[in-house]
């Protein structure tokens, strides 16, 4: 892995190969303000983001940096105050109606009265897939996330990690070319979290979907993503990005977690995040 | 094998530490087992025994004239006229209602009257629940309706039933559709439903607004319509709020039925019987208590029916705290 190339680029200039109509996400000058009792809060300030088809991008930053808001703008759950967003060359609202993306949140958000299988089938049911087609697709998806034996269980009978796997299966139900994930492993314990990361990496390769992955964990972002976009709060903006250079076909396993090149990228992201050099043992030099 | 063990065996990921914790904490409201039922029965019997004990104990220990402080009597007299023995009340239930030859035993008359009232209360509960649910859905659909309707719904409950009972009765008596006459019991049911709809409307509205943000986001992402969201998320999420509302509604329907029977002069129900036997209490004190027992039984049956509905809706109460 020592042949990994380090490419630290200034904000907003992602790889150009995904430009044009094939880009999964193309955000230009996105600004989002909220009116609160304390006055107007600028959650996003003039953000540019380009995500190529099939690319895995982590949005990383401390709480309040607008990373979730940016994802929600892409998902058409929020409207930008100004700027433009395109998802596969369409408006977010159109992309949403066309089910071009799947979504997962920090909480699994399963319907507690539905079985695992019926939870995964929910979007298919809403969009009029026939019963046999649904059954076939659900079987495939549950197999994909390793929960075939739990099809008839209810969410309260599953662990947090298993619930989140159901949520990911549901997000993948309609074969989206883009996955939007808002800290999906944030509520899980460390062991479960590492296993889920490996699983997500595998899924993203198998499905070929682009992923926008919101996280506040630096190792998580570096481990999973092709590119880590670093954001900073007040106002929420992109301060830089790090291309991890870890190819998609590199297995996301414990060997990678211990690879010096992985540590180098983690340090690099930390430097972008703090805006200052960091010594090799991870402490700031200041 | 217990469920926990099964889970551990089935779990393909034994390193998943939370799996064990989650499988222990299966938060489904369960049907009580044999032990649970036995405990409930024992507690109910103990409660009854305690009540009888307090009644008879006070009767035995307190002075004939009750407890008087200054000029004010703060606790009732203990004479057989004011407080008949419990066993006299029970015994009276088995004796004929009146001294007429061939009269039914008292318990039979009380049961007949209570059944008539139960039927009326049932109709009023059904009407009240339907109206309450429709109002709640309308208010959940349009904020303007909530602002416009909710104050009136609350205001409606400040008008005492007996104020408009005679009006409803006289309107009802004038209704005739085809050869069909508006029966007097229907007036009673309509008046009682006026009481029963209120908790359902308020509780259901609260429940319909209780679905989580994440579900709202998800259904927005799925581009699901309002009715589809209502059916698949909002109504199922409302069930835990709806059940207490239905129980309150059932209690209101029973109280409303009894009061409406009295205030419209309906003769066949338990309400009328309560009043007329209380009038005979000076001559037959134990007899006046029989319809009171009947009314209590009526309330218990109504509550029991809602409990059965709750059991049927158990799948939608998953995740409810035990």
Strand content of chain B: under 5%
Q: What's the helix count of chain A?
A: 9
Shape of chain B: globular
CATH superfamily of the domain at 109-317 in chain B: MetI-like
**Greatest interface by residues involved:** A-B, 34 and 37 residues
User: What structural category arises from helix and sheet content of chain A?
Assistant: alpha/beta
User: What is the class of the largest domain in chain A in the CATH system?
Assistant: Alpha Beta
Sheet of most strands of chain B: 2 strands, antiparallel
Distance between the termini of chain A: 30 Å
CATH topology of the domain at 109-317 in chain B: MetI-like fold
Identify low-pLDDT runs of chain A: 1-20, 282-286
Largest sheet of chain B, order of strands side by side? Answer: 1-2
Name the shape of chain A in a single word.
Answer: globular
* Order of SSEs of chain B: HHHEEHHHHEEHHHHH
Fraction of residues in helix of chain A: 25-40%
Question: Can you tell me the CATH class of the domain at 109-317 in chain B?
Answer: Mainly Alpha
Task: Report the helical percentage of chain B.
Answer: 55-70%
- Let me know the average pLDDT of chain A: 83
CATH architecture of the domain at 109-317 in chain B: Orthogonal Bundle
Question: Could you give the count of β-strands of chain B?
Answer: 4
Strand order of the largest sheet of chain A: 1-10-9-4-8-7-6
Walkthrough of the structure:
The complex is a heterodimer of chains A (286) and B (322). Chain A is of the alpha/beta class and 286 residues long. Chain A folds into two domains: 1-100 and 178-286, Rossmann fold (3-Layer(aba) Sandwich), CATH 3.40.50.300; 110-175, no CATH class. Chain A is 33% helix and 23% strand. Chain A has helices spanning 67-74, 92-97, 116-126, 131-144, 160-171, 190-207, 218-224, 254-257, 260-274, and strands spanning 7-9, 25-36, 39-51, 56-60, 82-87, 101-104, 178-182, 210-215, 227-232, 237-243. In chain A, a hairpin with a 4-residue loop joins strand 9 and strand 10. In chain A, helix 7 crosses helix 9. Chain B starts with a helix and ends in a 10-residue tail after the last helix. In chain B, the strands form two sheets. A two-stranded antiparallel sheet of chain B has the order 1-2. Chain B has a domain at 109-317: Orthogonal Bundle (MetI-like fold). In chain B, helix 5 (106-141) packs across helix 12 (289-312), helix 8 packs antiparallel against helix 10 (226-264) and helix 10 (226-264) runs parallel beside helix 11. At the A-B interface, helix 3, helix 5 and helix 6 of A face helix 2, helix 9 and helix 10 of B.
């Amino acid at each position: 892995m020592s042949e990994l190339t380090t490419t630290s680029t200034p904000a907003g200039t992602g790889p150009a190969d995904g430009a044009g109509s094939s880009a999964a996400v193309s955000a230009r000058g996105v600004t989002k303000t909220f009116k609160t009792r304390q006055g107007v809060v600028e959650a996003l300030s003039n953000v540019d983001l380009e995500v190529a088809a099939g690319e895995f991008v982590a949005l990383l930053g401390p709480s309040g940096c607008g990373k979730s808001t940016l994802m929600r703008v892409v998902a058409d759950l929020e409207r930008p105050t100004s700027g433009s967003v395109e998802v596969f060359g369409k408006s977010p609202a159109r992309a949403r109606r066309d089910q071009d993306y799947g979504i997962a949140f920090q909480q699994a958000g399963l319907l507690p009265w539905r079985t695992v299988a019926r939870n995964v089938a929910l979007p298919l049911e809403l969009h009029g897939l026939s019963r046999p087609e649904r059954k076939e697709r659900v079987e495939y998806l549950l197999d994909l996330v390793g929960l075939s034996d739990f099809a008839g269980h209810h969410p309260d009978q599953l662990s947090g990690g298993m619930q989140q796997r159901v949520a990911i299966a549901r997000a993948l139900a309609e074969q989206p070319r883009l996955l939007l994930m808002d800290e999906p492993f944030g509520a899980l314990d460390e062991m479960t979290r590492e296993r889920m990361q490996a699983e997500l990496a595998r899924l993203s390769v198998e499905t070929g979907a682009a992923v926008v992955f919101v996280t506040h964990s630096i190792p998580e972002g570096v481990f999973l993503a092709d590119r880590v976009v670093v954001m900073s709060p007040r106002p929420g903006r992109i301060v830089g990005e790090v291309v991890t250079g870890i190819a998609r076909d590199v297995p996301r396993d414990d060997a990678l977690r211990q690879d010096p090149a992985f540590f180098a990228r983690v340090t690099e992201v930390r430097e972008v995040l703090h805006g200052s050099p960091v010594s090799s043992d991870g402490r700031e030099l200041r | 094998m217990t469920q926990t063990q099964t889970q551990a065996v089935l779990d393909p990921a034994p390193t998943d530490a939370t799996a064990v914790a989650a499988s222990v904490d299966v938060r489904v409201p369960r049907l009580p087992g044999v032990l649970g039922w036995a405990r409930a029965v024992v507690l109910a019997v103990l409660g009854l025994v305690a009540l009888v004990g307090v009644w008879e104990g006070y009767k035995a220990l307190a002075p004939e004239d009750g407890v008087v402080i200054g000029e004010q009597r703060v606790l009732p007299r203990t004479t057989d006229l004011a407080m008949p023995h419990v066993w006299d009340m029970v015994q009276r239930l088995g004796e004929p209602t009146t001294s007429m030859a061939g009269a039914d035993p008292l318990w039979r008359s009380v049961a007949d009257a209570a059944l008539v009232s139960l039927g009326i209360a049932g109709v009023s509960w059904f009407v009240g629940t339907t109206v309450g649910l429709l109002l709640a859905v309308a208010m959940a659909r349009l904020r303007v309706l909530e602002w416009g309707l909710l104050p009136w719904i609350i205001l409606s409950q400040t008008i005492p039933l007996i104020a408009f009972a005679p009006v409803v009765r006289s309107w009802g008596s004038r209704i005739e559709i085809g050869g069909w006459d508006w029966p007097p019991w229907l007036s009673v049911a309509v008046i009682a439903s006026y009481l029963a709809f209120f908790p359902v409307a308020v509780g259901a509205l609260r429940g319909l607004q209780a679905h989580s943000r994440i579900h709202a986001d998800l259904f927005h992402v799925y581009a699901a319509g309002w009715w589809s969201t209502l059916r698949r998320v909002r109504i199922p999420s409302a069930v835990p709020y709806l059940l207490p509302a239905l129980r309150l509604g059932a209690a209101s329907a029973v109280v409303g039925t009894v009061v409406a029977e009295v205030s419209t002069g309906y003769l066949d129900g338990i309400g009328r019987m309560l009043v007329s036997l209380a009038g005979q209490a000076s001559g037959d004190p134990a007899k006046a208590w029989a319809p009171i027992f009947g009314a209590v039984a009526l309330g218990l049956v109504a509550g029991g029916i809602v409990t059965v509905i709750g059991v049927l809706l158990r799948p939608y109460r998953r995740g409810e705290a035990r």
